[in-house]
Amino acid sequence: MATQCSSDSPAEGGPISDCGSRGPDGSAMAFSLTATCGRSSARAGILQTARGAIQTPVFMPVGTLGTVKGITPGELESTGVQVILGNTYHLYLRPGTPVISLFGGLHGFMNWNGPILTDSGGFQIFSLSGMSKITEEGYAFASHIDGSRHMLTPESAVDIQATLDADIMMCLDQCIAHPADRKQAEEALALTTRWAKRCLDRKKDLARPQNALFGIVQGGMYSDLRTRSVEELSAMGFPGYAVGGLSVGEPSELMYELGAHTLGILPHGKPRYVMGVGTPKDLVEMVGFGADMFDCVIPTRNARNGQLFTKTGTINISNARFRTDTGPVDETCGCSACWSYSRAYLHHLYRSRELLSYRLNTLHNLHYYTRLMADMRNAVEAGTFPEFKEAFYRLREG
Predict the structure, then answer these.
(1) I need a labelling partner for 139 at 20 to 30 A (CA). Which of 14, 19, 130, 234 fits?
(2) CA-CA distances (angstroms) from residue 154 to 187, 191, 192, 208?
(3) What is the CATH number of the domain that holds 272?
């Protein structure tokens, strides 16, 4: 592992880096690249947090309300999950930060000992746009639970996440829908930059080195605006950066184009987090562009809808053809659902709407995702990521 930390200026390539010094946000989080691919932008690394190391590339299951639906924290560990995502907006409204603070933060409240990343709450308010109003100060919104009025500012978003004691916190940003015209995208970018500075100032005031703050790149579907966003955020020196505003309704080809562009100009020695993406194909493509971190509801939500991921593609366990199928979901999978139960049994559970169905399906899908990420890490370290990607697509065509 190298001992030199790359600079904060946007750059592609460069030495393998060990970035362990405290940044302007005051955090002590360290990120080290352990391998890079000479034939793509794929990379492997270690993100060191106060609650342990995270091997990247990594997928983070979504635990919106302090739970990954249907399974326990212990079961999450058994699938290989390293870090989970919590939701600032939802946890602020219910059960509320006063309750969570009684347990010293979200980790103690939900009995999860590993790292947690929290979003800022901006996307949830964006998705509830009919109940919110955006101003320079922040988001004024009505609770979807009881209609009560609230204000989320850059400062309060940081305060809430600090109370949750998230290992990685996100700046408040303005997310826009697709399609959006250039004026909308430029205004949202400018506001996101101003809010990022306010978030960073608030984080400095709190003096909490165990919590790292990431900036979020915006700019809509305009590559030059995304370049501007990267330049402005990089100048602030965040310890990590997220690519926001993707997977909001745009075609996959455009998402990949903007993802590749943005990832390619982010600081080389800092972790790169692509928010809200994706399918297994999305993960493979984005890792090839240089992404390190992902979150998405797809593996857990689709599990509850009967869709299971396998090395040869997806299956819908509700299909009648599985009623008498004595084999496992995926004979190459090592999860407890595949080791212990047949497709016929999982079909029966799902068609009967048994709660065990959602649990076993979720365990399988999360195991698939964590194994996919581990396989990509291993391929990068072995120098065979292009061959891995080729085999990934070939298996789905067979």
Answers:
(1) 234
(2) 17, 11, 10, 17
(3) 3.20.20.105
Pick the catalytic residue from 8, 18, 25, 119. Answer: 119
Q: What is the pLDDT of residues 23-37, one digit of tens each?
A: 688 898 999 999 999
Number of domains in the chain: 1
- Its sign, for the CA torsion 110, 116, 122, 124, is negative
Question: Residue 383 domain-assigned?
Answer: no
Question: Quick check: is 325 in a domain?
Answer: no
With beta carbons less than 8 A apart as the criterion, state whether 44 and 272 touch: no
Residue-wise pLDDT for 349-396, tens only, equals 999 999 999 999 999 999 999 999 999 999 999 999 999 999 999 999
Query: Does residue 214 lie within any of the structural domains?
Result: yes
Tokens in use for 46? 């270690």
Residue written as tokens 């010094």? Answer: 21
Q: Which pair of tokens denotes residue 346?
A: 């999982």
- The answer to whether residue 295 is catalytic is yes
Q: Do the Cβ atoms of 47 and 29 come closer than 8 Å?
A: yes
Question: Which residues on neighbouring strands pair with residue 52, listed in sequence order?
Answer: 49
Annotation says 8 is catalytic: no
2/4 Cα distance (integer angstroms): 6
What count of other Cβ atoms lies within 10 Å of the Cβ of residue 351? 15
**Which residues, including other chains, have CB under 8 Å from residue 242's CB and lie 6 or more apart?**
170, 214, 215, 216, 217, 272, 273, 274, 275
User: Which residue carries 């080195």 as its tokens?
Assistant: 209
Domain assignment of residue 211, given as a range: 18-296
